[in-house]
Amino acid sequence: PKAEKKYKSILSIDPQHGDANHLLGLLAKQAGNLKLAKSFFSTAVTSNPEHPQYLGNLVKLLLQTGNAEEALANIGKTAPPYKIDIQLFRGVALQHLGQLDEAIQQFSDILVLKADFAPAHFHLCMVYRLQNKIDLAISHGLKAIKLSPPNADFQFQLGLAFAQKNELDNAYSCFEAAIRLNPKHAASYGA
What we know:
The chain is mostly helical. The protein is built from 12 helices and no strands.
């Protein structure tokens, strides 16, 4: 409430203020008011279209609410090659739209610029698994885990790839690691 008042007072002076809109969007999302959060995030993005956090939170919200096409439209048709985070959002939106080859290309382009970018390897693991290219999925899943601090989602996706290849001992180890890292990782319990 105190922070909200402060941010709203900033907006009374400058309605396009990026940080105030972004932070009010985070508060609205936390309160479960996704429509209001979208409005604040959209205004923040309008104030600075290349700000990765503004765009990232808008895209995540749009994907969470099933609006992948709108997410992709907000990213634009081409992500600047120097903005790896924006390229990642574009790839995730393409993945959600089922445009898997385009998503693979986007994630691969990121790795040309930054070969040790674990989130790109993680998403390649997911997409290759969906395409039943399991050896590629496992390869990228292992790289994501090696490059990243411990991450339950990375372990879970790698576990799914191992399970799909019928390497059940490896899959089980990954699911156990995901649960160890995040005991509330519900998907790992059902895997």
